[in-house]
Amino acid sequence: MPFTQTAIHDGEYILIRHEGRLTIQEYEESTVSTRRLLDEHRWNRLLIDLRNVTSRVSVTDVYYIIEFDQKVFPLVKIAVIFPPERAEDGRFAENVAANRSVKLKSFVDYEQAVAWLTGKET
Q1: How many CB atoms lie within 10 A of CB 51?
Q2: What is the CATH number of the domain that holds 109?
Q3: Is 48 strand, coil or helix?
Q4: How many domains are contained in the chain?
Q5: Please, which residues have CB within 8 angstroms of residue 115's CB and are 6 or more apart in sequence?
Q6: Can you give the residue range of the structural domain that contains 113?
Q7: How far is CA 96 from CA 1, 6, 16, 90, in A?
Q8: For each successive 10 residues of the chain (122 residues), what is the average pLDDT?
Q9: CA atoms 51, 55, 60, 65: torsion sign
Q10: E-assigned strands of the chain?
Q11: Is the pTM of this model over 0.90?
């Protein structure tokens, strides 16, 4: 599954887009390179776009991913965009993150995610 990373300078965040099937190994690989980009720019905001992921992440993998994020991104504010048909998965990920003190919020709308992430909510 491919992923792309982009530094969004006007909002000072890293955008990572996953496509196709999301596996734990590929998520870990993307996380390592994303951490480097965040450090390079000295930013603490991350937008993860999962709208083009074709597979559903298992409950076990959600727990693992959140715990992994807790270690790799301890001070990073994370917005995750889910496809509308998987909004419930996003709410579940939010609950797991809250229980592990990870600052993560899920969205189905790109603009709302960016507004929350950058603090420019109306």
Answers
A1: 14
A2: 3.30.750.24
A3: strand
A4: 1
A5: 121, 122
A6: 3-118
A7: 24, 27, 21, 10
A8: 86 93 89 92 96 89 91 94 95 95 96 95 68
A9: negative
A10: 3-8, 13-20, 45-53, 77-81, 104-107
A11: yes
